[in-house]
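Posting for a labmate who doesn't have an account.
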Amino acid sequence: MRKKYRIKERLGEAFRLYFILVTLITILLMVMGLIFDGDRTFSYEAFFSPLFYAFIGVIPVFFFQSDKELSMKQLVIRSIIQILMIEAAILLIVYKAPSIPSDRIEVVISIAVGILIVYILSLVVEYIFELTQAKEMNAYLEEYQKNR
């Protein structure tokens, strides 16, 4: 029963993170596009890229699971490994994609920094979401204890 709950919990976390990432990546692509290639027009296929990049960003959720509570040091190390994996995967795609001007160093640096910013913002949004849930649970527990 516990394993089924963990899988359901991971899927819920991945689903929530996916939509956070899609939103943040879409904003990042818009800003970078306006800065580096503002006069270019795209077809509707361009809407697939945030979905694909967000999928890559969610993959570490399934590989970095822990049944025990992590220390702050372990959490930081895990986050660093996750961001390095995501950076490597996205930059590999950047260098393979003919439509991305990977020969321009400022574009590559902007993408790497943008990925880091999106990663940090996604952690902040997740923290706010979990903080809200914790406050609700504490309020329910307090109410339960008063009624006992």
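Reply:
Got it, the structure tokens are right above this. The mean pLDDT is 85.
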